[in-house]
Amino acid sequence: MRAWANVAELAKPKNLAGGLVARSAPGLPFLLREGLEVAFVPPQLDAPRRARVASVREQAKGTFLVTFEGVDSIEVAERLAGCCCLVRRADLPQDALAPSSTGLEGFEVRDARAGHVGFVAGVEEGPGQTLLCVERPDGRTSLVPLVDAFVADIDEDARRIDVDVPDGLLDL
Question: Residue 81's closest CA among 163, 10, 3?
Answer without folding.
Answer: 10
